[in-house]
Design goal:
By secondary structure, the protein is α/β, with parallel strands linked by helices. The chain has 13 helices and 11 strands.
């Protein structure tokens, strides 16, 4: 098992610099490897999906890297996302996806689509895709009770939003606890995160981390979706500044970031089964709700699919024992080595 397998080449050097006191593979073993060899799982205990009239479509286009057509306005579509995003951020959930194996789908510019009312809407959806010159690469119907299909569907449409909700609770506690006059949501992912916070006593601003005239304020709190290798923090000069940084997910344990950025007060995930925002909305302006055009100007998006995802995540606000439920789901899975 090589480091290149676990992280992209551009992150390798960064992690090696961070990793002077910590062994990355120790953390890999702690956070991921334990899930890769579980084979004694009774799939017969899984919930049947006969009553779920849902379908999964994998589509592609000769000239477009992502679907941007009229089905974003369709009430029959539950979700649209990039399949490539399931192979970024090496983590425990790489083994959750035996349906679309990494070696066959990574960097293929394929779009994943979840369709409601599959029996009745299927023909209409396919006709629209044909008119827009998109090809259907693969098609699955949940009512057929294929274990791989049903597990992937449950992971994408339930476990991911559920885990998202758990991390929002942690972030909300941190935002309310920190004495900051302004909360800066870091674009682009921060625009989506803003939908989930009620912050009546603080000023709200959106921040472009690539803005060359960016000035960091110690009285501000910065909210981001993914810390990754710490590139955004480096743009913030976080190795020198005392700032508060609240993040939805991370790719390494918090103590590694704390070692590298000792002046930063962090709120990062503390659960073994972490959430990864890239799985839901990376490079997906239609879900995030905002993007930059070629002139560097902000362009805003809204659609029923985005609204439904926000509503679903908010519906878990009062749900208890989320981590226990996620752990139960993991035990349902027969994991596959990538």
């Amino acid at each position: 098992m090589t480091l290149e397998y676990l992280v992209s080449n551009e992150l390798k050097e960064k992690i090696e610099k961070i990793d002077q006191k910590y062994n990355f593979f120790d953390y890999y073993n702690e956070y991921s490897k334990i899930f890769s060899n579980i084979i004694n799982v009774n799939l017969s205990e899984m919930e049947k999906a006969d009553s779920l009239n849902m379908g999964i479509l994998l589509i592609s286009h000769d000239k477009k890297i992502f679907y941007n057509g009229g089905l974003w306005q369709s009430e029959d579509v539950e979700y649209i996302g990039k399949l490539d995003c399931f192979y970024t951020a090496p983590a425990w959930d790489w083994w959750i996806n035996p349906l679309f194996e990494r070696k066959n789908h990574k960097k293929k510019n394929k779009t994943l689509m979840i369709v409601n009312n599959f029996d009745t809407a299927n023909f209409k959806i396919k006709k629209e895709l044909l008119n827009e010159k998109f090809k259907i690469e693969e098609e699955y119907n949940l009512s057929e009770n294929n274990s791989k299909v049903n597990l992937f569907y449950k992971y994408l449409t339930y476990i991911l939003p559920l885990t998202f909700s758990r991390e929002l609770k942690r972030m909300n506690n941190f935002i309310n606890r920190i004495d900051a006059e302004t909360v800066n949501f870091v674009l682009r992912g921060g625009f989506f995160l803003r939908e989930f916070f009620d912050i009546p006593n603080k000023k709200i601003e959106f921040l472009n981390p690539k803005n060359k005239s960016l000035k960091i304020n110690n009285n501000h709190l910065y909210v981001d979706d993914c810390i990754g290798s710490g590139k955004t923090l480096s743009l913030f000069s976080a190795s020198k500044e005392n700032i508060n940084y609240c993040c939805l997910n991370s790719t390494l344990p918090c103590k590694i970031y704390e070692e590298y950025f000792p002046n930063v007060t962090f709120s990062l995930p503390n659960q073994l089964l972490n959430f990864y925002s890239c799985r839901l909305f990376e490079d997906n302006p239609y879900l995030i709700g905002v993007d930059y055009n070629k002139k560097g100007q902000l362009v805003y998006y809204n659609n029923p699919i985005r609204d439904k995802l926000i509503k679903k995540i908010k519906s878990f606000n009062n749900k208890r024992n989320i981590t226990k439920e996620i752990n139960k789901f993991v035990k349902e899975i027969k994991f596959y080595n990538v």
